[in-house]
Amino acid sequence: MKGNLSIIHFNSRSLNCNISKIKDYFNQFKENFTIIAVSETWIKNEELDELQIEGYDLYNINKRNKKGGGVAFYINSSLRCKVVDNMTVVVDNIIELITVEIMRNQKMPASLQGMSSSLEGSYSN
């Protein structure tokens, strides 16, 4: 990592079904990514232990009552992070939004936001 910030994103269309493929993909690289962002995670809370990646902390948010959607961040365990609760929200059938604050230095934390939306129906102005 050496002070650099590297981010990669996957649309997993079920993290549980594709976690082994994602891990295999990362094994090709000499250096680890700092942050792995994943959309369309489709995670159920009981699956979280199976979805861990060594060297990373998992932060995620899921739909409450439906399949699909969901957002996750795997953040290198060497970084101090926390979920920003007042900027993290699930609105059924509309959005899942997670905000994670990364303390890279004392003066300027970085914020990372991930969103999955599933607007249903038609809307007009």
How would you describe the overall organization of this protein?
Mean pLDDT is 85; it is low at 121-125. β1, α1 (15-26) and β2 form a beta-alpha-beta unit. Strands 1-2-4-3 form a four-stranded mixed beta sheet, with no helix packed on it. Strands 5, 6, 7 and 8 form a four-stranded antiparallel beta sheet that branches. It is mainly β and 125 residues long. It is globular. The N and C termini lie far apart (46 Å). 10% of the residues lie in helices and 37% in strands. The chain has one helix and eight strands; from the N terminus they run βαβββββββ. The protein has one domain (7-117): 4-Layer Sandwich (Deoxyribonuclease I, Chain A), CATH 3.60.10.
Beta-strand residue fraction: 35-45%
Q: Can you summarize the main beta sheet? A: 4 strands, mixed
Secondary-structure-based class equals mainly beta
CATH homology superfamily: Endonuclease/exonuclease/phosphatase
> What percentage of residues falls in helices of 4 or more residues?
under 10%
Count of individual domains: 1
Name of the CATH class? Alpha Beta
User: What's the N-to-C terminus distance?
Assistant: 46 Å
Radius of gyration of CA atoms, rounded to a whole number:
15 Å
Mean pLDDT: 85
CATH architecture: 4-Layer Sandwich
The ordered string of helix (H) and strand (E) elements is EHEEEEEEE
